[in-house]
Amino acid sequence: MKLPDGTILMHGRAPYDPVKAHQYYLRTRQLKGRKKGESYTVKTDKGQVVLTASQLAEQKAYAAKRVSDIKSRLAELNVKFKKMIADAERKEAKSERDAKKAPTAAEKSEVARESKKYREKHKQELSTKSKTSSKTKSTSSKPKLTPVAAVGRRINQAEDRLRTAVARQRALNSATRNR
């Protein structure tokens, strides 16, 4: 293609060809219509999500409610955990005090007489019980959790859920606006 001053219009190293340029445009065009409304891009751990303004507001409200619910549940669990620890310490102190008191000779002889009577009365039951218990062993592989440990585990799970909910809320709050 020639310019009005007589020079050849160059496209890179080759002269510009308007027919070739038009064919390229027709091959590669992708018509995009007008986008209605605003949209927001939210970055998540799985990638980017495009939301409308109403969806973003709804998800922000849900995330805020979820965070507050988890925080209140975590506070309840912490109070329960502290109470259980205090109760366990009190029981342990009481059992230590009781263990320090040795039974008297009269108490020992009374317990011995009662156990002798029980053994004579339930002789058959005790013998079958001892035979069956020696043949079968307990097969539980998991140790049972104490109530305090169970509450501690629930607290850890709630803290994990809180971390993920707060991360989601931050992602929603830092959503970028698309036009």
Short overview:
By secondary structure, the protein is mostly helical.
Helix content: 55-70%
Gyration radius, in Å: 39 Å
Distance between the termini: 38 Å
Averaged pLDDT: 85
Instruction: Specify the structural class.
Output: mainly alpha
SSE string, helices as H and strands as E? EEHEEHHHHE
Task: Let me know the number of strands.
Answer: 5
Spatial strand arrangement across the major sheet: 4-3-5
Subunit arrangement of the protein: single chain
Domain count: 2
Can you tell me the overall shape?
Answer: rod-shaped
Percent strand equals 5-15%
Number of helices: 5
Report on the biggest sheet. 3 strands, antiparallel
- Unreliable stretches (pLDDT < 50, length at least 5) are none
How is this structure best described in words?
The model has no long low-confidence stretch (mean pLDDT 85). The longest helix is centred in the middle third of the chain and has 48 residues. The chain contains five helices and five strands; from the N terminus they run ββαββααααβ. It folds into two domains: 31 residues, no CATH class; 98 residues. With 179 residues, it is mostly helical. Helix 2 packs antiparallel against helix 5. Strand 1 and strand 2 form a beta hairpin. The radius of gyration is 39 Å and the shape is rod-shaped. The strands form two sheets. The chain has a three-stranded antiparallel β-sheet.
